[in-house]
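Record 1 of the preview.
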Amino acid sequence: MSKKYLIGIDVGTSGTKCVLFDLEGNAITSCTEEYPMYQPQNCWAEQNPDDWWNAAKAALAKVTEQATDGEIAGIGLSGQMHSLVLLDKNNEVIRPAILWCDQRTAKDCEEIESIIGRDRLIEITANPALPGFTASKIMWVKNNEPENFEKIEHILLAKDFIRFKLTGEFATEVSDASGMQLLDIAGRCWSKEVCEKLGVKMNWLANVYESCEVTGRVTAEIAKVTGLTEGTPVAGGGGDNACAAIGTGVCKNGKAFTTIGTSGVVFAHTSSPKIDPKGRIHTFCAAVPGEWHVMGVTQAAGLSLNWFRNNLASDVSYAEIDKECEKLPIGCEKLIYLPYLMGERTPILDSDARGVFFGLSAMHTKYHMARSVIEGVSYSLYSCLEVLDEVGVETNDMALCGGGGKSRFWHEMIADVYGKNVKTMLSNEGASLGAAILGGVAAGVYSSVADGCEKAVKESSSISANMKKHSEYMKYYGVYKNIFPAVKECFKDLKVI
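->
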């Protein structure tokens, strides 16, 4: 009997990664192909969907070379959530994709809530209108590019554009569709009420599946250029965070994870939809059929440290930053950073917010600033955790993943700030592994998502919280929480200058 493999494809913001796994969750080989992000105006963020596809094709061609001794049983897709892809009647891209981190749609969010009503919108979609979500991006195109709006025949998300290219099928699944703000979260289907009120035609939207269902199969044409086999099943997959949950074994109540990537997320599974009436956290359908997850989002997590190093400390490595920051005391000798480079979601819901170094003095070095960035992002993630606790979501089993999770220094800080034991997983592939597990369920090599997690997800290490350090961090966290309310109106003044 030949070996069986699975492929997870993750369409990220900086690049598309393809990983080949065996059925035990071991990564055999991986390939990442990068592409640019464009910011034509302040707080805009766009990409060319064809760049995603060219990256996926190239990465697939490389990883399939390592599977000649076996069969690729299934493929799962993961990707950046919310990003808007518009296709015309010829299935050609109409305009660059408007990304999840784009902040141009504040007025369009106000319009959505005035049309539907904020309470009713939260009742249906479990979330208030936010600039990151897809619905406000559609409204922006409608209001600002009517000629492009008139051309729309299909609306897709990033990973679903790759699915279309692989299979020729227009399909999505419940976890990623949840972030479009067009889905009835409890009913796990498109909301006719929301779509009709916003002028979004239902036939523009892809068919909705559960994350582990077969949504299409690789076409003969694509098999020739990727090394895949014609007819290979492609699972629904999930948004990057929903897939990261599966890749870290978060598939039942009590299990949670924190990811520190470009953005940061605190994510917890729940068997029933838990909705924050204030809209500070997001409730979406989980990649586990018939269940949900709740998540708080920090817009600029790893992005904050990446921005700092590229612009203010390009002469040092991330490893050196960790080494030097460890020597500094908690609180960075009274320097606090607010990580609002791209506005902020949880808990402040303010697209006008911007980054702040508070308490900067002549004694501070670039390493004080670097540590304050890491602490500030950690405080922002802790504020997400506070809201989850407030709405009654259990987070007693916490994992850490993403690029920031590879740093022992940051891992220890998260455990101490949270006041919780925090583990990491043996595989660092997170979303790609989760996507592959969903592909395995679709292909029938796993009996369920839980079965796939049990067989393919393994714990690596765990760090216990130092409660003395937790108490010290909380002193600075108290100041951190008070800074934004004090300068909130200044951000609005700055915007209109």
